[in-house]
Design brief:
alpha/beta, Rossmann fold, 12 helices, elongated
Length: 281
């Protein structure tokens, strides 16, 4: 029997892949409500990224941690504007590169560079640290480490690298902001409180933060949190699940692999049964 949402109303907060997500939900028999929860904003001043690129070219780092493919591409765009792309790529090839999962690896492959370490699924900071640890503690002691951040800083990762003896420099490349038009998000919050949403799907912790930030400004954060407990909550993976729990929401579904296709298929398989067991009030 094919998985099906059986007509459940499914909230998706995707931005970049909103159309694809809504189409998948419809394919699996759900009724999607799309409310993009963020937009990517290049940093107004790329001083930190420029300083990192120059320092890397001068040989002032031993290890570079790449957290996202988008962030690495943004870095390449910055150095291209400075006219230093070839020197930057050559410098990347001279240091130990740690990639958090397949997306930065794909960009490195395009550059003809292989990572020193790749964190396995579910690609959280825990797997990243464990993968580096497996190479031997001597690699981190006294090492000058740059961490290409995404959206917001990860204090757990930075603290973990520092505790292992690394000298860590955070390199913010891009950040997230609320969409220019927040009305779809407002309507999604109101619909959740009104009991008009059966399933909510989260693919990044920033979506969680932005929803609660907006609910706070609307004066209904408590109601919204209570309403989410009556909804089947699906999380793309452990990092997003941690952010949900920090806001008092326990996810009901985490896919076997942190990918959109697995998330929607497994949510379609499990959500109808879980929805029937949720409290009504």
């Amino acid at each position: 029997m094919n998985p099906s949402f059986n007509g459940l109303r499914v909230l998706t907060l995707e931005s970049r892949r909103a159309t694809e997500m809504a189409s998948l939900i419809s394919t699996y028999g759900g009724r999607p409500l799309s409310a993009p929860a963020l937009r990517e904003v290049p940093l107004e001043a790329n001083a930190d990224a420029q300083a990192f690129a120059n320092a890397l070219i001068r040989g002032e780092f031993d290890i570079v941690v790449l957290l996202t493919g988008v962030g690495l591409r943004a870095l390449l765009g910055i150095v291209e504007k400075l006219g230093d792309r070839a020197a930057f790529v050559a410098a990347l090839g001279r240091v130990k590169l740690v990639a958090r999962g397949p997306k930065p690896v794909a960009v490195l492959r395009e550059l003809g560079i292989a990572p020193w370490v790749t964190a396995p699924e579910p690609n959280t900071w825990r797997e990243l640290l464990a993968s580096v640890d497996a190479q031997g503690a001597e690699h981190l002691r006294g090492a000058r480490i740059a961490v290409q951040e995404y959206g917001r800083s990860n204090p757990h990762l930075i603290e973990g690298l520092t505790a292992r003896g690394g000298i860590v420099t955070a390199v913010p490349v891009y950040q997230y902001a609320l969409p220019h038009d927040v009305e779809p998000l407002r309507r999604a919050i109101a619909a959740t409180i009104a009991g008009e949403i059966d399933v909510a799907i989260f693919t990044t912790g920033t979506q969680v933060a932005h929803l609660f930030q907006l609910a706070e400004t609307m004066g209904c954060a408590g109601e919204f949190k209570a309403a989410l407990r009556r909804v089947v909550v699906a999380s793309i993976g452990p990092t997003t699940s941690e952010d949900l729990r920090e806001h008092g929401v326990v996810p009901d579904i985490e896919p076997t692999h942190p990918k959109m296709g697995f998330l929607i298929r497994e949510a379609a398989e499990r959500a109808p049964g879980l929805a029937g067991a949720k409290p009504r009030t």
